[in-house]
Write a structure and sequence with these properties.
By secondary structure, the chain is mostly beta strands. The protein contains one helix and nine strands; from the N terminus they run H-E-E-E-E-E-E-E-E-E. An eight-stranded antiparallel beta barrel has the order 1-2-3-4-5-7-8-9. It is elongated and about 90 Å long. It starts with a helix and ends with a strand.
Length: 182
């Protein structure tokens, strides 16, 4: 009788320990930094102007087995523009062990920025922004870091307060993200 009870207790204890260890595996919280380089196009009436641009930012999020959700701050800078954005992004990822492809979308707002060239200077207005992402996550098994490499397209309609016309922004870039998993 004692052997059956001891065996049952050992099974329950082992199951309980493995359940508790895997309970934290259901989701991971993370924070990190990002940097990117690409191009930006300004569309005002029938005129387009393109130039190279770079970006940097920070983010915090939660990683669930098939979905990742994050809040992100980004700063985009080019020769004639500085633009700050706050975004909420959602990603759907493939459950592959080491390299995980993903696709994502985001929505947010511009909250600070400036367009200035030799002739005019405009401030940003609070405009809604949309973005789409496609990338790969490299999950480093031993370390608590993940590296994302992604392509990103951002569209901001009516980004700047121009009195007589609309000034839209289209930003496209390659981006690297370093995530620390808590």
């Amino acid at each position: 009788m004692k052997l059956k009870t001891t065996g049952l207790m050992a099974i329950l204890l082992a199951t309980g320990i493995s359940y508790n260890a895997n309970a934290n595996m259901l989701f991971d919280t993370y924070a990190g930094a990002t940097a990117g380089f690409g191009g930006i196009t300004y569309k005002m009436d029938d005129h387009d102007k393109s130039m190279s641009a770079y970006s940097y930012g920070a983010f915090i999020g939660i990683d669930i087995p098939l979905v990742r959700i994050e809040g992100e701050y980004s700063h985009i800078s080019a020769d004639t523009v500085d633009l700050d954005l706050a975004m909420v992004n959602a990603y759907v990822k493939m459950p592959i062990p080491v390299v995980k492809p993903y696709i994502g979308a985001g929505i947010g707002m511009t909250f600070d920025g400036e367009y200035s060239d030799d002739i005019v200077k405009f401030q940003t207005q609070d405009s809604i922004a949309y973005q789409g992402m496609l990338g790969l996550t490299l999950d480093i098994p031993v370390l608590p870091f993940n590296v994302d490499v992604e392509g990103r397209v951002l569209y901001v309609p009516d980004a700047f307060d121009v009195p007589t016309s609309e000034l839209d922004v289209l930003h496209y870039e390659g981006r690297v993200k370093l995530r620390y998993v808590f």
